[in-house]
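To assess whether the prediction recovers the assembly geometry, we first specified each molecular entity separately, as shown.
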Amino acid sequence: MSILIKEVLLNNETTDIYIDGNQIKTIGKNLAVAADKVISGKNKAAIPGFINGHGHAAMTLFRGFGDDMPLESWLQEKIWPQEAKLTEEDVYWGSKLACLEMIKSGTTCFNDMYWFFEATVKAVEEMGIRAFLSQAVIDLFDEKKTKQIQIDIPKWHEIAQKWNNRIEFTLGLHSIYTVSAETFKWSHEYAKANNLLIHMHIAETQTEYDNSIKNFGLSPVQYLNKLGVLSPNLIVVHCLWVDETDIQLLADNGVKVIHNPASNLKLSSGYQFRYEEMKKAGLTIGLGTDGCASSNNLDMLEAAKLASLLQKAWRFDPTAMPAEEAFYCATEAGGEVFNKKTGKIQEGYLADLCLVDLKQPTLVPNFNLTSNLVYSANGSCVDTVICDGKMVMENKYVSGEEEIIENASKAASNLVART
Amino acid sequence: MSILIKEVLLNNETTDIYIDGNQIKTIGKNLAVAADKVISGKNKAAIPGFINGHGHAAMTLFRGFGDDMPLESWLQEKIWPQEAKLTEEDVYWGSKLACLEMIKSGTTCFNDMYWFFEATVKAVEEMGIRAFLSQAVIDLFDEKKTKQIQIDIPKWHEIAQKWNNRIEFTLGLHSIYTVSAETFKWSHEYAKANNLLIHMHIAETQTEYDNSIKNFGLSPVQYLNKLGVLSPNLIVVHCLWVDETDIQLLADNGVKVIHNPASNLKLSSGYQFRYEEMKKAGLTIGLGTDGCASSNNLDMLEAAKLASLLQKAWRFDPTAMPAEEAFYCATEAGGEVFNKKTGKIQEGYLADLCLVDLKQPTLVPNFNLTSNLVYSANGSCVDTVICDGKMVMENKYVSGEEEIIENASKAASNLVART
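The predicted structure of the complete assembly is given in tokenized form:
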């Protein structure tokens, strides 16, 4: 399959983009190539597909089910009782809905941690986007569970060999308050031996930080360092409660960071994400939305806007995190976090890209497309999405979307009604 | 003209809504009435049109023209030199673009302060939405200008008698650092005698607050109180740098407040808007977007989301400003601020309302529509807009939108190119 996008705006110039197989093959004016599909780029701009660095896709089913509650009662009264009833079918439809929402808002790659991960794999395979998927690992410091995990992970890894090459298996270790030191250390060795990424929540709340000091005598990051599990394979999510020493440790060990501004704000986890300090230390920082139970959508342009506005606000500095940097975090930095040639429109990169509709009011006038995308538009400006060289959305329509909306709605109401 | 909306979701029930003239006449199931236009409400929910409590409509022309800069150099190098070149024609196309963007995101009423206000009037008359319009008043403490204003305001007021009844004339006094005490006092008397609203910026930045203490020996709000101009006709915008005494003074005098979270964040003006304290004091608090040069869009659902998330974040309280309150501020409270029966779908209210598309992913599942609207969706979920009993958008299409996009784009680039 080959695709030729004719005369599209790319970095302020009108050009053609030729996609062959799953790669961006050639970028240039008036390309004289034949292609299976030719798309007009008139009144459109090409941008990289977004990379959603952290989420729990199937939690779209809990969108709006519980909000504006204290964290503990929200989890105990709302989320956990429902999660206990989840079936593989529920996770499948929740993941389909998540993929649909992501595609509609221009995301071509996401990183996930949840239950029944094979149902999410099925959804992703069908929807045509790229994903890094893990089954959540929680042993609650129970030795039996810790042993079981050392059997489960290689089994999951084995299953993952059969996945479509758009989907990669990762290890999803929930957090330092739900996962034992033994599991961290074993997973670190397994990931290193098998070249796998590890994805975990860290330093999300002050409570987590305080408990870490109490239980381990160390900050969350310094505790991980003591365990010897900080490495370039590790992706740490949230990272709100960190000091200079923590940041330096992360940077020295090549750890990658994912910032989730919407979730952090809505759950009152913290708003002073130390972007400047992390950037200065040389850390690669991607952006994510977190799951829809907490934040409550999967719109990466909104994540970029929130990230930038927050930096300006709490630092009282309007020059903090300019639009270009927020956009970079939502795209190219994501590619670097996951070691993938995605998030950038460049010859030799994966053909993961979007066309945005320049005729919609929020993108007019077009003095600065990146500013318009980050500060003015939202995911709804995306018109066409190509992932892995294939069309996944054209003219704002995703094949089968009506069925997904209907079945995900049903799955959510049936789940809640079920005893 | 009459409109019948059949079987639409309204406050969790399916009902019909009958609009006659510019009013919501009847709400009920299976209404047996004939109407000039019948709309199916299938898969749609009816919500009030949003009320954008503060902005500078024509500044859409400066969207993305200057961002991520310190306030002073942004104004001096970017905004003021362009504003000095503005023509009536520019303001007309900028206002048309603003109206288009507002309609597309469900806003049916806005409050404006800018230059060449008659050009904005023309745009609003054509676009069919509701507006409170003022010409910006700035005398820079120059006696000659102060005198001229006392000639100008009655002249503008006279002109306004001929406006369409959707548009109301207000007094737009820029701020305490650009408007003299004499102009405040004279305008206050004029507004009282003629039953007009006054709209002003106040307590936006710490610099403004510090200068007020330095120049007047009082906080901005206490200075206004000393001038005797706090009244139920006064609408104060921003109100970030206020203490308990200020809040009590505003409440005691029935002053209305407009909060603009996106602008406050992006310009680093302040993020600790004292919503809870103001609510407790009994103040009516509406929401606004500010102009597109600062914030950079006119999406009131985004404003509602930001307002709520910010309260949760800086107070470290996830129960602060629930979705229902943020939605109330963006709708019904706006009606109260402007003394208009708008912002609520109720018999006898003005027919200013929207239908949202329940089949778009961000509104699925539909456990709680208000939560979905505030936390998950954005203005793009709006499908149909009725204002003053007339259709202004149907199936996401506004009549003449292509021409507006084209001419506003041209106006913006010509303006910047012009010497």
